[in-house]
Amino acid sequence: MPNQRMLEGFAEYVEPEPSGQGNQRVIGTPPGTRLMRLERLPHGWRAWLATRDFVYGTYLELFDDGRVLNCTTRADEGDEYFWVRGQDIRRQPDG
Questions:
Q1: 48: phi then psi, degrees, rounded to nearest 5
Q2: Residue 46, Cβ neighbours under 10 Å: how many?
Q3: pTM of the predicted model over 0.70
Q4: What is the DSSP pairing of strand 57-63 with strand 80-85?
Q5: 65 φψ region: left (φ > 0), alpha (ψ -120 to 50), beta (else)
Q6: pLDDT tens column, 32-66
């Protein structure tokens, strides 16, 4: 099955952490959520999850230091922001 081989090239299954506390590198999303666009930013990535024009909608800001911010922007209502994950304290500084 050629599609299965292609998917296996992209699939990366993360093993649970040895401490048994679960895996802190996994961010859950609702079933059926599709990635519409991935943009590189100076501080990380923007992953669009729901939008019509890539100006308003819902996206995740994936920061280089491990933080993840969920953002929903609207034309006629206030914007919503909440932290999905804090800074990765285990990351070692470069250098």
A1: -75, 125
A2: 17
A3: no
A4: unpaired
A5: alpha
A6: 888 999 999 999 999 999 999 999 999 999 998 88
Of the candidates 59, 67, 64, the one whose C-alpha atom is nearest the C-alpha of residue 93 is: 64
- Residue 39 tokens, joined: 């943009």
The structure tokens listed for 15 are 């093993």
In this structure, are residues 59 and 46 in contact, taking their beta carbons and an 8 Å threshold?
yes
CA-CA distance, 87 to 51, in Å (whole number)?
A: 27
Query: What are the sequence ranges of the domains in the chain?
Result: 34-95
Asked whether the beta carbons of 65 and 86 are under 8 A apart, the reply is no
**Interstrand relation of 44-51 and 57-63 (parallel, antiparallel or unpaired):** antiparallel
Contacts of 74 by beta carbon, 8 Å cutoff, 6+ apart = 56
